[in-house]
Amino acid sequence: MAQQRSAWAWVPSVSFGQGVPYVAVMMLSTVMYKNLGISNADLAFYTAWLYLPWVVKPLWSPIVEMFGTKRHWTVLMQLVGGAGLAAVALTLHAPDFFRWTLVIFWLMAFSSATHDIASDGFYMLGLPTQHQQAAFVGVRSAFYKLAMIGGQGGLVYLAGELIKSTGDPAHAWSMVFALMAALYLALCAYHQFVLPRPASDHSHSTGGALWQDFVHTFRSFFQKPGIGVTLGFLLLYRLGEAQLLKMAAPFLLDPRDKGGLGLTTSDFGLVYGTIGVCALVIGGLAGGVTVSRFGLKRALLPMVFIMHVPDLVFVYLATALPSDLTLISICLAIEQFGYGFGFAAFMLYMVLVADGEHKTAHYAICTGFMALGMMLPGMVSGWIQQQLGYQHFFIWACISTLPAFVMTLLVRIPAGFGRE
């Protein structure tokens, strides 16, 4: 039977498939636009808007429930994502490429967010027991992170090498996106044949009742005790990091006479996209171990310090402007390790908030506010950087982390939560 197909045949590939469009929309677009001469203010403002589909993702999740199967939505959104990647490759030589590629990235962002809804639901149907789901949690995370390393590391490195050999950034990125499109469409075709067809995966025709449940779910979320502090924590925890992350690529790529480090695109793919992401993953694992050992209540404030204090390495880099690639790599690894370490606490806090009758839906709402907390600061980060310069901008980003400490002191966490 189809349901008996080994989970190893599809869980890793679907997890990898979840990461590819997100990496293209949220990470590769920033580096690509920088290579193509887009200003920091425009780059930050317009790419930050691409977070919006993940912000409002919970609002259209009932549509996925009401129409079609989650298997159908998963494959269809991969097809849309592959077509989007191909469309970016075809439009990069157009005179108005910035506008057209942004439109395509918007469509890809909505399809990626919809893919997340469908595939997350499909996991629970394709792996029906809690034991199976728990067994593949680490696999899902690992292959999603592999997509990040492959995209932000390998593909950015490839783009840099193509820029060196052709001297044409538009042509180089067009080739990279064409390669991504071919691979992603092949992955889509693979899933069309390999994904199981669970008997429980069917559409819900009772749309009226589903919408009533949807409204009740949202109402119950905003009726949780201390919801004001909770929302403040979700929105402000990454206030400084949201600005810093949006300007990290422009800073590393900008020439030294503009206050940047002047890295080549290939070097960026190596030090930030590969070494940095690996440090991020290790930090996340270490953060998870720390919480399981001490509990979230005891670990949260120290983890906030470990997450935000390393942001000071960007102040150092913008002041000293070192040229030693090893030193730059160490600095970025320290900052990314801290980010991953502290973000583990943030993720577990969302689990705590979502706990209850509608935990899956409430967790999705939390992730929406999490994305909003990245989108709004990111939109203005480019303009702020252009007004202040890189050195003072990174000082400002560090100051912007202070609200996270305040909100950390205000949130209430049960003793022992998260501890094994």
TrEMBL record:
Subcellular location(s) of the protein: Membrane
MF-aspect GO terms: transmembrane transporter activity
Domain of life according to the entry: Bacteria
Cellular component annotations (GO), alphabetically ordered: membrane
Transmembrane segments: 7-31, 72-91, 97-118, 142-160, 172-190, 269-292, 299-321, 327-351, 363-384, 390-411
Membrane topology: Multi-pass membrane protein
UniProt-recorded name of the protein: MFS transporter
